[in-house]
Amino acid sequence: MVPPAIEFSWNASDSTPCSWFGVRCNPNNFVDELNLSNLGLSGQLGPEIAYLKHLTSIDLSNNSFSGSIPSELGNCSLLEALELSLNSFSGEVPESLGNLQNLEYLSLFSNSLGGEIPESLFRIPFLDTISLNNNGLSGSIPSIVGNMSELAYLYLDYNQLSGTIPSSIGNCSALQELYLNDNLLEGVLPDSLNNLDQLVSLFVENNNLEGRIPLGSGNCKDLHDLVLSNNMFSGGVPTGLGNCSSLTRLAAVNCNLSGHIPSSLGRLTKLKLLYLSENQLSGAIPPELGNCKVLSDLQLYGNQLEGGIPSELGLGINSSLTQVDFTRNKFTGPIPPNLCFRKQLRKLILGQNHFQGSVPSDIGNCFTLTRLILKQNNLTGTLPEFVENANLLFMDLSSNSFSGAIPSSLGNLTNITSVDLSLNKLTGHIPSELGSLVDLEALNLSHNALEGSLPSDLSGCYKLSKLDMSHNILNGTIPSSLRSLKELTILDLSENLFGGGIPTSIFQLGKLSFLQLGSNQLGGSIPPAIGLGIEAQSLRLLNLSSNRLTGHIPQELRNLKMLEHLHICCNNLSGSLEAIGELHSLTEVNVSYNAFSGPVPPALMKLVISSPSSFIGNPDLCINCHPQAGVSCQGYSTIKSCRPISRKRGYNHVYIAIIVCGSFLFAVFLVLGISCKFLRHKGREQNLLVSAEEGASSLLNQVMEATENLNDRYVIGRGAHGTVYKVTLGPTKVYALKKLAFAGFKGGNTIMIREIQTIGKVRHRNLIRLEDFWLRKEYGLLLYNYMKNGSLHDVLHETRPPLLLEWNIRYKIALGTAQGLSYLHFDCDPAIIHRDIKPMNILLDSELEPHISDFGIAKLLDESVTSTPSSMVQGTIGYMAPERAFSTKCSKECDVYAYGIVLLELVTRKKVLDPPFGGEVDIVGWVRSAWIETQDIEAIVDPSLVDEFVDSTVKEQVKDVLLVALRCTEREPSARPSMRDVVKQLMVGDSRSQSKHA
């Protein structure tokens, strides 16, 4: 379509085009200027334009021209200005443009040009401006650029230029603006840039530059803008930048800078923007920055700065600051008062520091404030009254120690979109006034001590997409009015005291992806509405664990085709898992500790392999084993095999008779065989009393040969229960041999053999397996699989350099150990009490999976005839429960206490009797005292874990485990949880953490 201006003025019958729109002629009626910018023209620029040989200026900018730039333009030798920007020209920049020796202005920015920059452009003597930015140019910047004495403006940003910045650029003495940002440039900033004493703007951000920043040593009095961000420089902020007296913007974000912020920056009295975020800067904010009276935007987040906010900075009455971001530093002290005295503060972001005290009350009167983030500090006191904050859009005060009630004035924040008050100590009821926040999209009040019911008024927040009220003391029923929140995608009401049933109205929320109702007091059955219609089919996570639910899993659950995480453990549910078996999208399932029965559906077998503990606690749940179909029962020690049903029940009596007779005959022959063998070998092997299996004498000979008759050179450990040897019988046959010293057994060898055989029958993935044993007159030998990573004690305290233990590894060790100990206490008949739980008895395989060792050994040695009253106190100093001081009797509660200490060692990486505790204080006393006094988990845990607290779910899970440890180490045995309860608590915490990551 031809623009009207051209259609009505361009007439081919005219004797001259000089009157046409966009055309200008010189006195001789030759066209010397063509300006058709901003007309929406399209098509290609033909070579015929070169016929206009008297052209001095061409402006076709901001149109839709495509194709290549005609090389014939190089014939317009009088051309002084060529403006082709904001089009869709492609191809390369014509080399012939270098023929335009009168050219002063060249602008080709925002096209689709590629290839290298022709060197000929840099031979044009009077060229003042080169604008080639926002194209796809590649190659390097020609070093010949240094010959351009008239060049004032060079824009090469937003291309794909590589190589180094030529040092010759320092010869461009007239250069005022240099834009090289957003390329692939590498190497160092040339020192010659200090020669550019007319330079006003230097932009080199978003490249791969390195080395020290050389600027500031020359005459930089005219420099206004210096933007260096997102490079890989070294060293610190140059002190010489304080000489750049005209500087208004200094940005060096993510530049790998270290050292202190130089006080010389205080001389920059015209500075408005200072961005030094995401570096390794340390020390305090220099008070001299208070001299920067027009500083409006100060961003220092992501460093290691410390100390308080200097009063000289004037963050308050004298402040010109409108935006402040100090996130992720180590600042301390109070937040200055009078923050909004000048009514211009818009953003106050001080999160993830160590600020103390209360929030200044005038924050509630700051009507200019749009963003308030004070999360993860040590702030206390009550929340301010929000009176004049109608412009506030985002507020995050989470992870502090605020107390008292949530002020009802929060309802005055009429434009707010997100409120996070989680992880505080807030009490009282949730104010119904929150229901008036019609623009609210996210509300997080979790991890407080809020009580009462969930206000039905929240249904007025119809834009709400995330609602998290977990970890409070809320009660009553879940209001059906929540069905009005049609935008809700995340609903977390877990860890409260909600009762009644699960309201069917929740499943009318068509966008709901994550539903967390675990750890409440919900009763009744799972409503069939969960899978009816299309509303709930977007659900990806469903957590109903640790409630009082009964009945069967509704068949409608199979309609949740997008469900990935299902947690229904620790209820009273029964029936089969058939409906779950049709959910092929599931990646995680936890149905443990219910009353489910029947076979595990084939589709869930992979989950049984990856997480067998997620199916335990269902006595009647079983696995259909069909080796011929490729389904073996090996590896499923936590779930029993389904018993095959006989096709003809009448044959049962026959089978029973055959089995009984066969067993009797087998027993007779076995007794005769053993007697004969005993008589045959009595003279030859008097010292060897018994072995665990047939043919074991041969294996014993191999063991003795491999260890050179238990030579000390093979010793890998010595403990209270004996000496441990490493036995290598082949490339894949590596064992640990424990030698136990005793002299007979109080009940005779038969009873001792029975005790060891009982130990040998115990099978669990977190218990070390007894492979074989032999008894001699003076000692016994127990053969176990060798654990590559040694003991937990070695990994925590002895390995040098210390092994990096991320939280997910520590948590796996904590949970696995708890599951193994729970199995000993509740799934063995009779129950086995370990009596000596400690890190040395927790061995780690190549995957750092824990395996409890020495279970049953303490009892075995206690019943040896050599045991004395003084030796009958089993256990290790520091790990023994307080009640052991008055009784030699060991109970399950004693194991729980010792396990709690293991957890404390895992979390703190301190020994049970660490010298820094002082005096006779052990790890339990130290942790309990520190927690009561500070409630600061970062002051207690291993410092290497604090770095992971950037992920709030990690910090939350570490805190949960710490609290479990403190419950396990209560002085009163009756106050300690059972190991089965410990497993539940850890698994619920893990499912909650995973759901937040989902």
Automatic annotation (TrEMBL):
<feature type="binding site">
    <location>
        <position position="738"/>
    </location>
    <ligand>
        <name>ATP</name>
    </ligand>
</feature>
<keyword id="KW-0723">Serine/threonine-protein kinase</keyword>
<dbReference type="Pfam" id="PF00069">
    <property type="entry name" value="Pkinase"/>
</dbReference>
<comment type="similarity">
    <text>Belongs to the protein kinase superfamily. Ser/Thr protein kinase family.</text>
</comment>
<dbReference type="GO" id="GO:0005886">
    <property type="term" value="C:plasma membrane"/>
</dbReference>
<dbReference type="GO" id="GO:0051707">
    <property type="term" value="P:response to other organism"/>
</dbReference>
<dbReference type="GO" id="GO:0005524">
    <property type="term" value="F:ATP binding"/>
</dbReference>
<feature type="domain" description="Protein kinase">
    <location>
        <begin position="710"/>
        <end position="988"/>
    </location>
</feature>
<keyword id="KW-0325">Glycoprotein</keyword>
<dbReference type="InterPro" id="IPR013210">
    <property type="entry name" value="LRR_N_plant-typ"/>
</dbReference>
<dbReference type="InterPro" id="IPR011009">
    <property type="entry name" value="Kinase-like_dom_sf"/>
</dbReference>
<keyword id="KW-0808">Transferase</keyword>
<keyword id="KW-0675">Receptor</keyword>
<keyword id="KW-1003">Cell membrane</keyword>
<dbReference type="GO" id="GO:0006952">
    <property type="term" value="P:defense response"/>
</dbReference>
<keyword id="KW-0677">Repeat</keyword>
<keyword id="KW-1133">Transmembrane helix</keyword>
<dbReference type="InterPro" id="IPR000719">
    <property type="entry name" value="Prot_kinase_dom"/>
</dbReference>
<keyword id="KW-0418">Kinase</keyword>
<dbReference type="GO" id="GO:0004674">
    <property type="term" value="F:protein serine/threonine kinase activity"/>
</dbReference>
<protein>
    <recommendedName>
        <fullName>non-specific serine/threonine protein kinase</fullName>
        <ecNumber>2.7.11.1</ecNumber>
    </recommendedName>
</protein>
<dbReference type="InterPro" id="IPR051716">
    <property type="entry name" value="Plant_RL_S/T_kinase"/>
</dbReference>
<dbReference type="InterPro" id="IPR008271">
    <property type="entry name" value="Ser/Thr_kinase_AS"/>
</dbReference>
<dbReference type="InterPro" id="IPR032675">
    <property type="entry name" value="LRR_dom_sf"/>
</dbReference>
<dbReference type="InterPro" id="IPR017441">
    <property type="entry name" value="Protein_kinase_ATP_BS"/>
</dbReference>
<dbReference type="InterPro" id="IPR003591">
    <property type="entry name" value="Leu-rich_rpt_typical-subtyp"/>
</dbReference>
<dbReference type="Pfam" id="PF08263">
    <property type="entry name" value="LRRNT_2"/>
</dbReference>
<keyword id="KW-0067">ATP-binding</keyword>
<keyword id="KW-0547">Nucleotide-binding</keyword>
<dbReference type="GO" id="GO:0009791">
    <property type="term" value="P:post-embryonic development"/>
</dbReference>
<feature type="transmembrane region" description="Helical">
    <location>
        <begin position="654"/>
        <end position="674"/>
    </location>
</feature>
<dbReference type="Pfam" id="PF13855">
    <property type="entry name" value="LRR_8"/>
</dbReference>
<dbReference type="Pfam" id="PF00560">
    <property type="entry name" value="LRR_1"/>
</dbReference>
<keyword id="KW-0812">Transmembrane</keyword>
<keyword id="KW-0732">Signal</keyword>
<keyword id="KW-0472">Membrane</keyword>
<dbReference type="InterPro" id="IPR001611">
    <property type="entry name" value="Leu-rich_rpt"/>
</dbReference>
<keyword id="KW-0433">Leucine-rich repeat</keyword>
